Amino acid sequence: xxxxxxxxxxxxxxxxxxxxxxxxxxxxxxxxxxxxxxxxxxxxxxxxxxxxxxxxxxxxxxxxxxxxxxxxxxxxxxxxxxxxxxxxxxxxxxxxxxxxxxxxxxxxxxxxxxxxxxxxxxxxxxxxxxxxxxxxxxxxxxxxxxxxxxxxxxxxxxxxxxxxxxxxxxxxxxxxxxxxxxxxxxxxxxxxxxxxxxxxxxxxxxxxxxxxxxxxxx
Length: 218
What we know:
The protein is α+β, with helices and mostly antiparallel strands. The chain has helices spanning about 5-15, 30-45, 105-125, 160-175, 175-190, 200-215, and strands at about 20, 25-30, 45-55, 55-65, 70-85, 90-105.
């Protein structure tokens, strides 16, 4: 069995997931849940997955919260690879990837970037269903399957409900309107939040969740 066949075997046991991380009105699959499900099969097949990161870039992002408090975040980004290694044949398969993170501490930014990157690598590499990335999952169909369409017939643009959710989340984090615009521009290159696609808005909301969790943990 070559390395590609072994990866297929891992993919077969991955299957679907029950969402285990709560957002405002949607849940999402965590990296730990994915690892727990595939770890035994990888061990059985002597298959390793090793992350390799290159030295990236970082910068500071100064802003004032809606409560008037001045804050500084660290924004980091860089290239990385995930390397599949067959422990039997020593065959390798490198998958180019990248990491991005923003937190009030540079080590937190790096850690959250790797966590987020790892989760999406697993989801995309194994072809796993991502309920929370499906714009329809918030439109009453329980996110059973991934679809290219969005609710309310608005193409792929973010809807008003999602924008409201982002605003509520930003208030919790302590970001004002300008902070949100700057953050959206940094992440997606858009000038206004309503220019986001629904998928980008969901990713944006998750970034806010991570910031909130880091604040609560610190």
